Amino acid sequence: MSLHLIDYVVLVLYFGFVLGIGWFLRKNVSSSSDFLTSSHSLPLWITSLAFLAANMGALEMIGMCGSGAKYGMMTSHFYWIGAIPAMLFVGVFMMPFYYGSKARSVPEYLKLRFDEKTRGFNALTFAVMTILASGISMYALGILLQSIFGWSFTLSVLASAGIVLAYTYLGGLSSAIYNEVLQFFLIVVGFAPLAILSVQKAGGWSGISQRLQPAMTSSWRYVAEPGQNPMNVEWFGLIMGLGFVLSFGYWCTNYLVVQRAMAARSMTDARNTPVVGAFPKMIIPFVVIVPGVAAAALAAMGSGYALPTKNGGPDYDKVLFSLMGQFYPSGMLGVGLTALVASFMSGMAGNVTAFNTVWTYDIYQGYIRKHAPDSHYLWMGRMATVFGTAFSVAAAYLAQSFNNMMDYLQLIFGFVNAPLFATFLLGMFWKRTTGHGAFAGLVTGTAAALTTFGLTTAEGKGGFLGVIHEFRSAMAQNFWVAINAWLVCMAVSVVVSLMTKPKQDSELVGLVYGVTPHQAEESVWYRRPATLALVAAFICVLLNFVFF
Amino acid sequence: MLDLRKPAGWFFGALGVLLTATGLMAQFTAPLLDMNLNLYFGIFSIVFGGIFLWLSRRA
Question: How close does chain A come to B35, measured CA to CA in Å?
């Protein structure tokens, strides 16, 4: 991959626009809510694309393309099963309570619905997780810039942190969201040619199907038995673990994405944000996974292309770069690399803007200084942006020193996230759930995740408490860790709730289904969240059949 | 508030002009590529940016 002046010009052009957007939006920030939550001011098309883009970091792009080459079309489960149902659910059923409760953040919803300790638990774990996630993103970007442009790790990390800090400090959440949307278009436009060219070179979809094992081009046909499919998972773990617990736990309770929907102008727009976002989300596999599948086919057909290798085996993390090197000339290469760098940065900005809100409203205003004037919280939000970015840089260096840190962190995220969905499900749909029940469920659910991991093993991971079961793949193990955490959280929350005193119905209006008046339906069908969700669900089912 | 369609339109427009010019003037290639990708992408990007600008003018 050799770069020319034009590639650098594209990179500079993009970051010029990114900083310019921050500069223009600074005039819109006059209160803490303008800065931290965009004051419910953004149009639907922007919030729905940001909802997608906040999650579509570069690690995902690189990882999904690699998974396409490794597991084939089964990777699409991460979208069609692992995202769409949860996105539709959060829009249709949960957003009325997030948006309608007037809570400014997910932890604040927990405070209104349950109590202070449940909020504190969620706010603290979320704050730590976002900083670490942002640090990991920054670390990966540093490595990428180092290997492609030859910049030093320190320069790469500081330069990217500086740009992210500049535009989030100036324009706050709106600036982060605008740039996420711009990055989304750049990713799709910049990688669509790679998908088209690689599939075409591999002889179209029929050519790919002929050259690969049938399990590589089907998403469902081989999931009855774990040994038959490349992921080594079975249908129950896949549907319950990925499709239900992990995916709903992420899309429905993670403030990073929910924050984007809460920035919408009206209740209908907030509910439609994830639903409308589900449409482009369904198409993303064709841009990110299909090139990986095509790469596997190209390697099998002796076209001169070979999968990149490391220690004698295929290095799937490099598939995307090797494809870019084979198909993109200088110029287009600059577009692809800029899209990747951009998605790293918008991932960091997403984390930083979620962190500064939770820090300012849930931790600082909640526990440190309760009754200050708004201008003070605006100042604190800006300071949180600065030290959030600084912590991320520190986390990036931590990740550099401990190679396996990323693996462990992802595991820890799973431990904390998996039980959360049970807490929200009970909290929003069963008015009898109490604060003590929710808190006990969360703590025991997290412990159950840890125990499951400690008692099972897969690919040499886990089993530190003794081995009672061995999974065929780490992915299957992750799914079951999540399932157990969810079940335990659910059961403990129900039992403890039944033994403790619930809140009065009057305190739960706007927070719980059944005691909250229904929102009036929109007059036109295409503005109704439930109708749109049905259309999206139909298309999603259709896609699953086409690639069955 | 700033209409995002404007900066998006100008960005993709400028990107398109840059790549079209590169496609016309330079002969960059890639091992498995057999077309002038920079030129085609450049033209597409100009149109794409133009659509954003047109939409922002209509609003």
Answer: 10
- Identify the CA nearest to A395 among candidates A142, A60, A207, A164: A142
* Cα–Cα distance measured from residue A463 to residue A483, given in angstroms and rounded to the nearest whole number: 17
Cα angle at A319 between A317 and A321, to 5 degrees? 95
Structure tokens at A440: 């006990």
The answer to whether A33 and A356 have CB atoms below 8 angstroms apart is no
CB of A41 within 8 Å of any CB in chain B? yes
Collapsing DSSP to helix, strand or coil, A459 comes out as: coil
Q: With a cut of 70, say whether residue A408 has pLDDT above it.
A: no
Report the predicted TM-score, pTM, of the whole model to 2 decimal places.
0.93
Residue A289 lies in a domain: yes
CB contact under 8 A, B7 and A182: yes
Interface TM-score (ipTM) > 0.90: yes
Interface check B47 vs A, CB under 8 A: no
**Rg of chain B in Å (alpha carbons):** 14
Q: Are A241 and A483 in contact (CB under 8 A)?
A: yes
Domain count, chain A: 1
In a domain, A184, yes or no: yes
> Is the residue at A168 inside a domain?
yes
Look at strands A469-470 and A313-314 and give their pairing: unpaired
- Section B18-30 average pLDDT: 92
Instruction: Express each pLDDT in A440-494 by its tens digit.
Output: 999 999 999 989 988 998 887 788 888 889 888 877 888 888 899 999 999 999 9
